[in-house]
Amino acid sequence: MKHKLIKRFLIFIILGTVAAGGICGGMYARKNSLKAEVVPVELLGSGYWGDEVSSSGVVSNDYFQEVKLDQNAQIKEVCVEEGQEVHAGDKLLILDVSGEQLNYQIKALEVEKLQNKIDIAVNELKILKNTKPYEPSAVPEAVMETEQITDNGEAQVSETDQAAAKAGGSETGELSEDVSPGYTREELKQMITDKEREISELDLSRRKAELEAEKLKQKQTDGVIYAAVDGTVKNLQNKDQLPVDSTPFLTVAGTGGLYVTGSVSEFLLDQIQPGQRVTVSSWESGITCEAVIREIGTYPTAAGGYGEGNANVSYYPYTAYIENENGGELRNGESVDLNMTVGGNENPESVYLSKMYVRTENGRSYVMKADNNNRLVKQFIQTGRIINGDTIEILSGLSTEDRVAFPYGKAAREGTRAVDSEESGV
Length: 426
Prior knowledge:
By secondary structure, the chain is an alpha+beta fold.
């Protein structure tokens, strides 16, 4: 009887091996028959030439520069006196900005710590996914020898020997202290789900902290407030008794020339500066000229977002000066459109790619690219800003010489054969 069972067992093993080989062979053949078209990165994304910023404004010939301070502001030095004549670029005040710098450093450290937690969690997830689940072992040969024959001629294993088999096949039926059965398939599945949720929550916290850090960074200055126009200092307040309402700490009454005020999104605030040129266009008179930014507000406009863009985004005012010879026949109170280009491809190492070629896994972005063997591999990348809603900046992990595939569909998997679009007749 023993020899019959062994023979039957061997036959099952052989048949199982043949079946498995056929299945694996069929799967390999199907996988090998799949192909994915790849296209050079340089053909899929254009360079970033800057953001177009548009807003509207009204021409004025009696501009007043108002210097308003936060209640928590600390003045180190007042550089002017009441009634003093100043020129654009002269120092008006020097503020103590050490507190703002400290706040930014604290928030930047928080972002770094969250990223470290994400890296650790991603590594833990990788380990979990590579962990084999604990499966109760088949009845070992030592147990088979103790089997009993039932009345109908079938082999039966005693409950004691079954427990021994589950415990690892020890002769005593007990599990040794230094041997652990590990996690079951269900336990591993739940642990993987929990870890993916943890990574997603950490990534959300990191992105929120990054946004807060960026806002704090934009507020950082050297603490010096300059005159934006030629004019006279008026309504100078006491530095030891700051106004409790919206009253300006001081005002510079401008003299000569025309001025216009526009607005810029908080996300582009760090990309404009005094001296930058703005194109002024009037639909009323048809006049087009240039103005030079003299002042950038440190507080959002009361109207919220009258600039072009998302109404939920804060907009900051800027004031530009139009010289008389450039303004031509522009008149006081005339409505105009203001346009300028900010930013640009200041990072030569950046690559720009259509968003449709980028996917996210556990809070990390990746693309499917062709390796040296013309097989698709998953390449993780570090991303930056999103341009015009459809183009994403890639800071590292990809070059313009790489070839990428559309990362969706049955062929979008590692190991798929990669073919250039020309080979497919595209």
